[in-house]
């Protein structure tokens, strides 16, 4: 009887996960006439979000080129955003048809993906604090220099003698590290440097000559049939002056300037913070609350169910189930959550052919991970219940399912409620990790606004305050529930 009940519970959990995948995948279905562009929307003016005007729409130089090409070829364009270092894996996993992100076709990249012809050439720029006199590549010898992870600048700095290379995920991180004096300098592209130069008068920017061919191209999966078609339209755009016109439009666009100090509140002039810059983008940031809560609630609910199943496995007299529960918990607690997330998101399409969405990947990863932790908490709660109650129920002939559901589990859950609340709080904060696969939760929206406005702290401080208020609300609700349970006991 016990074995039958445990198998039924496992089947129910698996059925819930499968149903969730099937339902969520319906909204991501695409026609054969749709091409997916993957990009990193924190790299103005190539690709970014004007959150006060365009909202969720990714805009920029690369996006306009992609729209023109796909329209000429008779395709619909779908644009998806993610971190720069996840773009090539997205191509390899079949998550995107092509990539545009100011990407240069290096020899190393060509081993993994195909490239179009170059459509724009730019130069590298040394960024440093004013007065540092770092104007040439030779001046960087012995210095700690920041570059964007996976960028052409990383390859260029590697070839500079005596430079201490420090790869970072995003350009704003490099700028902030320079201003904090943790980096002597950074090397970024000149068109991107223009915006940061206007927004950061305390920095200096010096262009350095390219030692080899450098420019932006479109990346495709190996053997893609799209390469010659895209090259044909790119040549057409170059010959007609269309690309030059788009470059003029985006690279000469107005850059957000610092607020007039005379109109700033005292706190802004004292600490160098200006929250007025993010006011037009507040609706965009706040809409990320729903995304964060969706991940958290779905993951917590499914993780709780899966945790109960695993805990029953662990206390089961059936050895294979007990072994599985213990081994599963060991694996998921012994590996980083971000590793599990990226494996589920990028490996699933490549290994199974199933185009798992970011929502599915995030929820599945979080509930599988959370279930491992919750199972240990529930197991301890079950074993803490007086054994006499179980023995009394068995002597009265109470079925195992009723005994666990009506007698043991309610008492165990009452005892472990604080631990479950702590796990829910951790899950709420860990949900920010979905930003690495391009989900626009609270944290990613804050970083996108920061890149758009060429600022760092203001949007992150605002996002941190929202997380804190959500955690306080969750804690308050748990305290109310705990008091009611104590009253009813």
Note down, in words, how this protein is organized.
The protein is an alpha/beta fold and 489 residues long. Helix content is 57%, strand content 10%. The chain is built from 19 helices and ten strands. The strands form two sheets. The protein has a five-stranded mixed beta sheet with strand order 2-1-3-10-4. Helix 2 links the parallel strand 1 and strand 2. Helix 13 packs across helix 15, helix 17 runs antiparallel to helix 19 and helix 18 runs antiparallel to helix 19.
Number of helices: 19
Mean pLDDT: 82
Largest sheet: 5 strands, mixed
Order of helices and strands: HEHEHEHEEEHEHEHEEHHHHHHHHHHHH
Model regions low in confidence, pLDDT < 50 over at least 5 residues = 1-7, 18-31, 258-270
Radius of gyration, Cα only, in angstroms?
Answer: 27 Å
Structural class: alpha/beta
Q: What is the number of E strands?
A: 10
Assess the beta-strand content as a share of residues: 5-15%
Read across the widest sheet, the strand sequence of neighbours is 2-1-3-10-4
Roughly how many Å apart are the termini? 31 Å
Gross geometry: elongated
The helix content is 55-70%
Brief summary:
This protein is of the alpha/beta class and 489 residues long. It has 19 helices and 10 strands.
Walk me through the topology:
Layout: H1 2-26, E1 34-39, H2 61-73, E2 76-81, H3 87-92, E3 98-99, H4 107-110, E4 113-115, E5 124-129, E6 144-148, H5 152-158, E7 164-168, H6 171-179, E8 185-189, H7 190-199, E9 203-208, E10 219-221, H8 226-240, H9 242-251, H10 266-271, H11 282-286, H12 288-314, H13 319-334, H14 337-352, H15 358-384, H16 387-395, H17 400-430, H18 442-453, H19 457-488
Helix pairs in contact: 1-12, 2-8, 12-13, 12-15, 13-15, 14-15, 15-17, 16-17, 17-19, 18-19
């Amino acid at each position: 009887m016990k074995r039958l009940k445990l198998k039924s519970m496992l089947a129910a959990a698996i059925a819930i996960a499968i149903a969730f995948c099937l339902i969520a995948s319906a909204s991501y279905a695409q026609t054969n006439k749709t091409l997916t562009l993957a990009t990193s929307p924190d790299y103005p003016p190539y690709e970014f979000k004007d959150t006060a005007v365009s909202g969720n729409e990714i805009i920029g130089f690369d996006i306009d080129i992609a729209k023109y090409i796909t329209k000429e070829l008779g395709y619909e364009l779908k644009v998806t955003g993610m971190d720069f270092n996840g773009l090539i894996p997205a191509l390899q996993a079949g998550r995107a048809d092509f990539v545009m992100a100011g990407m240069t076709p290096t020899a190393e990249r060509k081993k993994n993906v195909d490239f179009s012809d170059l459509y724009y050439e730019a130069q590298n720029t040394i960024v440093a604090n004013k007065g540092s006199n770092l104007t040439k590549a030779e001046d960087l010898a012995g210095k700690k220099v920041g570059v964007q992870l996976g960028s052409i600048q990383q390859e260029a700095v590697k070839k500079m003698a005596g430079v201490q290379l420090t790869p970072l995920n995003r350009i704003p991180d490099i700028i902030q590290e320079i201003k904090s004096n943790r980096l002597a300098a950074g090397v970024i592209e000149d068109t991107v440097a223009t915006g940061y130069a206007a927004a950061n008068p305390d920095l200096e920017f010096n262009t350095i000559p390219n030692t080899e061919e450098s420019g932006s191209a479109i990346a495709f999966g190996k053997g893609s049939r799209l390469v010659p078609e895209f090259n044909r339209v790119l040549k057409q755009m170059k010959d007609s002056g269309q690309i030059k016109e788009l470059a003029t439009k985006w690279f000469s666009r107005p850059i957000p300037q610092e607020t007039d100090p005379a109109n700033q509140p005292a706190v802004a002039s004292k600490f160098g913070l200006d929250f007025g810059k993010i006011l037009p983008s507040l609706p965009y940031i706040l809409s990320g609350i729903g995304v964060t809560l969706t991940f958290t609630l779905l993951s917590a609910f499914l993780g709780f169910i899966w945790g109960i199943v695993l805990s029953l496995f662990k206390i089961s007299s059936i050895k294979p189930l007990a072994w599985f529960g213990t081994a599963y918990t060991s694996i998921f607690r012994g590996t980083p959550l971000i590793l599990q997330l990226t494996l589920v998101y990028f490996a699933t399409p490549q290994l199974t052919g199933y185009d798992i969405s970011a929502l599915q990947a995030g929820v599945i990863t979080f509930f599988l991970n959370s279930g491992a932790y919750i199972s240990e908490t529930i197991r301890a709660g079950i074993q803490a219940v007086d054994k006499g109650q179980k023995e009394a129920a068995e002597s009265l002939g109470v079925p195992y399912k009723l005994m666990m559901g009506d007698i043991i589990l309610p008492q165990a859950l009452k005892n472990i409620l604080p631990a479950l609340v702590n796990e829910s709080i951790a899950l709420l904060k860990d949900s920010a990790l979905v930003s690495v696969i391009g989900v626009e939760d609270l944290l990613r929206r804050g970083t996108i606004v920061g890149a758009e406005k060429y600022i760092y702290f203001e949007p992150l401080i605002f996002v941190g305050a929202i997380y804190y208020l959500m955690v306080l609300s969750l804690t308050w609700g748990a305290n109310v529930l705990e008091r009611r349970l104590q009253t009813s006991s």
